[in-house]
Design a protein that fits this description.
Blueprint (H helix, E strand, L loop, with lengths): L2 E4 L3 H12 L5 E3 L13 E3 L5 H7 L3 H7 L7 E4 L5 E5 L11 E3 H10 L6 E2 L4 E5 L2 E4 L4 E3 L2 E4 L17 E12 L2 H4 L1 H7 L3 E6 L2 E7 L5 E7 L6 H4 L7 H11 L5 H8 L6 E7 L12 E3 L2 H4 L7 H18 L4 H30 L4 H9 L3
Parallel strand pairs: 1-2, 1-11, 2-7, 4-13, 11-17
Antiparallel strand pairs: 3-6, 4-5, 8-9, 9-10, 12-15, 12-16, 13-14, 14-15
Helix pairs in contact: 1-4, 1-11, 2-11, 11-12
Length: 371
Amino acid sequence: MTIAIVGAGLGGLLLARVLHVNGIDAVVYERESSRGARAQGGMLDLHSGTGQRALREAGLIDGFHAIARRQGQDLRLLDPDGTLLLQEDTPEDAPLERPEVDRADLRDLLLGSLPAHTVRWGHACESAGDGQVRFADGSTAGYDLLVGADGAHSRVRALLTDARPAHTGQSVVELGIPDIDRTRPDLAAMVGRGNYWVLGNGQSLAAQRNGDGRVRVYLGFHHTAEDWFADSGIPFDDPAAARARLIDLFAGWDPRFTALIAACADTILPRTIAALPVGLTWPQAPDVTLLGDAAHLMPPVGQGANMALLDGALLGLALAAHPDDFPAAVEEYEREMFERAGAAGRQSAYVQDILASPDAGRRMLAFFRPV
């Protein structure tokens, strides 16, 4: 029987790997033209009980340890006035509870663990149903089980639910400083080895050390409309002017933080943050299911990649346990996934609420260090 996975993201590839380990073939259809067609984003922190558990089930935990950054667990939390609220520096012998890993390195690890023919590049899914996936180039492919691992704007999701992602009220601008240790050692020392968060006044600044020497900077604006960027006065077609406008929007913050914005390069990426309804479920279908962002898109506060990886692992294990009964495997997987993803979605929404609050720094400190 044919298992078709739409989307070669982390969850889809992890599912293909677990199936491969258990002697079950699957085909992954990916819209990108090749594995190097676009950049894969920044760092991920993989939690021991979810993302790392998935990699253990896939037989890839040693490969993960080889590319993970223990020091990426470091954290500095500050108020906009520069007050240091929390500093956690990771000892060299600390356990790998949630180390950082470059998303591109993790994806390469997963791709390298699969037979070369598993992923069919350049296959953009336009629609599916009645046992057929239809692609943008007019071709089709049959399936006995279809897994939508195709992200926030999933085409497969429509087979199961009318739910669509909705704007969370957060708008984010991503910038970056390449080779920061050489170009701005003062800012490199300030950010440290892991994550650097400044929270408050309905805005946020997050800086994250990447394995290639780059620091990615994320500027968050809360309580914004979906079309806020159009009215923000940020001229994204003029990087220098855009940085100047962003600095204006952080007027009153400690000068060290606006210096971080000023030092960023010309790549400036605006993003509106959307999420699916928390606790989303759907009636079971015997030949279709979803995983990752296609199933439970959450705000980007550390849960999404971990949930997607564990989805892939547990669906793969359920299919291995019921190789001749796909409906039973889907029912077993969805029952557990709905409960787990619902809990993760509620926690993500709570953290999102903290980030949007006027006293976000203090509330986040209490989240990390409850009394």
